[in-house]
């Protein structure tokens, strides 16, 4: 995934639409928050008006009406106090909204990632993806608090204060208003200056996560190839770039934003005092001056608040836009075909797999499979062999619907692959991958994989895979935690668990992608025995590098540069003088 440098407006639009989506169930809170914040702003605006009344009507004319004076003074204090209380409560309300929205957003992102097509993961970098789900969604929370609370609150206070100023002296208010566009100019300049740095800093942080995850994941290879220094240097460069990007962001803040706003504050005060200086001060104008100066702070402060949030706001908008981009990434085609298990089961004469004129390329112009046609009868054991890169795993990926074929067709039990609904398809076809993927969970959970299977189903599958005995010997048998990636098992045992997992779904077709490549001959025999017991009941399609494992297959398919060059049983293929299979087999015999 490359960092996307979209326009700020584009990012903002993306971010806002995502925020609205995530906050939809909490929308009513927003209405209430606006109402209470408006009431708080009104109360706050009342303070200087009461202060003005105290000065103009009592202090200057020495009209010492103590009860009314005490009332006005208490009014100034109490309105300010209630306004703060209301504002605090709205902050709590909006923070709750923010956290619930982030929770929803995380769920949305994770569920979406689970549905992405395999082609997406060919490009994706794990660390960056994890960063989207965790860091970026967390940054969205700041966006809620900033946009919803600070911005909303500050805008309401600003509007209230301007109205109160207009009521006191509209000409003075106009002067203040005329000067406000200067703030917008400052903010615009700041944004232009700092936006590229903000985007860059985020992208680099993601890159840092990516590098960390990659290095930790491949630590044994990294250390064994003495690459620590090189990786350390690469990391240091990215880290330095990140530091530089953050620094230019801070520079924009320190050199432009803060000084410009302070200067603006002084200009505004000077303008108001200058206007008063040019007028004949009457006694009543002292109160107005007091109220005006009080209000000026209430104009400047929200403006500073709004502008000071921009740096955080930009970071959050960038993060939110990246989450939105991930959510826009097309999910894998939802297969909702009506061809169910029952339909397929009825067609008992149809081949388990029928492939016609299949062509496939990962990237345009680089065809990996060329015009493949093939029938695999139900219950057959078929081996697929060929050189590295000949397209064996690709063929399996297409049978598993991980990628759509560009030309040609694949039928499973007489049904076009696309027409079978997802759930049935996954139940029908089991996979034992080359590298068994084990969760940091118990043996039971690893076989079950969230399918809600009974203990009996799990045990039957484990027995069929010859995994029951070693699982039963673990201290908590099926409930024993297997460690991260199944670290407490041998490679062969992991493979047997993976076979048990595939068998537990009672598939009618079992795909094995070099399932015996990492295991010793003894374990291989166990796997072989397990597969032999499935013969006739399940259609087995096995990719094999070690040809001894498919020697007894009903049919062996030899792939060469994405084309089927030979097919037949072992004996038949051995008859083809100079044939690829014969050469591969003899080579392996020699090596043994
Ligand atoms: N995700 C991918 N994106 C682009 N090209 C790919 C991808 N996976 C495989 N290829 C290419 O497709 C070709 C066939 O690869 P494939 O993995 O199917 O071969 P294979 O016969 O299974 O090899 P091996 O025996 O080494 O596993 C290779 O040239 C490979 O580089």
From TrEMBL:
Domain called ABC transporter: residue spans:
353-586
Q: Where is the ABC transmembrane type-1 domain?
A: 32-315
An annotated GO cellular component: plasma membrane
Task: Kindly list the places in or outside the cell where this protein is found, as annotated in its UniProt entry.
Answer: Cell membrane
Its main localization is membrane
Q: How does it sit in the membrane?
A: Multi-pass membrane protein
- CDD domains tied to this protein: ABC_6TM_TmrA_like
> Entry's Gene3D superfamilies?
ABC transporter type 1, transmembrane domain, P-loop containing nucleotide triphosphate hydrolases
Q: Could you tell me which Pfam families the record lists for this protein?
A: ABC_membrane, ABC_tran
> What molecular functions are annotated in GO for this chain?
ABC-type transporter activity; ATP binding; ATP hydrolysis activity; ATPase-coupled lipid transmembrane transporter activity
Q: Which InterPro entries match?
A: AAA+_ATPase, ABC1_TM_dom, ABC1_TM_sf, ABC_transporter-like_ATP-bd, ABC_transporter-like_CS, P-loop_NTPase, Type_1_exporter
SMART domains per the UniProt record, alphabetical: AAA
Protein's name according to its UniProt entry: ATP-binding cassette domain-containing protein
Span-the-membrane segments of this chain are: 30-50, 70-89, 143-165, 172-190, 255-276
Question: Which keywords label this protein?
Answer: ATP-binding, Cell membrane, Membrane, Nucleotide-binding, Transmembrane, Transmembrane helix
